[in-house]
């Protein structure tokens, strides 16, 4: 049985953080803020590592790029249920 401590998040919390960081990364790329883009990429990677509870130093065969893709799909699927798009044009 998995018991969550106060420091651990649920999947939906990780998905929300992932979406927020992804939006920040997209905006940083649009504004050509390369350092911020790099930092948000690092933060996204850390969220994925924490989300799955993996230790990349011990699990050398983990394909982090594939894992990020999988988590992107999960995070965006969760968002579609609660997402409202506003067209400001």
From TrEMBL:
Protein name, as recorded: Uncharacterized protein
């Amino acid at each position: 049985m998995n018991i969550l401590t106060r420091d651990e998040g649920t999947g939906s919390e990780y998905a929300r953080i992932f979406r927020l960081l992804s939006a920040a990364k997209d905006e940083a790329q649009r504004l050509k803020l390369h350092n911020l883009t790099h930092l948000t990429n690092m933060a996204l990677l850390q969220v994925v590592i924490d989300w799955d509870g993996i230790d990349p130093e011990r699990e050398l065969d983990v394909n982090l790029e594939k894992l990020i893709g999988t988590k992107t799909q999960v995070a965006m699927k969760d968002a579609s249920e609660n997402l409202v798009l506003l067209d400001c044009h």
